[in-house]
Amino acid sequence: MDTITNIITTVLFLAVPAPLIWLCCKMTWLKKIGIVLLCYLFGMIVGNIGILPESFTVSADGGDSFLSLLQSITICVALPMVLFSLDLKKWFKNAKKGMLCMLLATISVTAVTLVIHLAFGQKYPDSPQFAAAACAVYTGGTVNLGSIRQAIGMTANNYVIFNTYDSVISVLYVFFLSTVGRKFFLKVFRMKPYEKVVSTKGEEPSEDRIDESVYAYREILRKKNVPGLIGAFFLSVVIFIISYALNMAASKIDSGLGMAIMMLSITTLGIAASFIKRIREIKRSFQLGMYIIYVFCFSVAASADFRALINFKPIIFIYVSVGIIGSLLLHALLSKLFKIDTDTMIITSTSAICSPPFVPAVAAALNNTDILISGLATGVVGYAIGNYLGIAINYLYQLF
Question: For the chain, which end, N or C, has fewer CB atoms within 10 Å of the first or last residue's CB respectively?
Answer without folding.
Answer: N
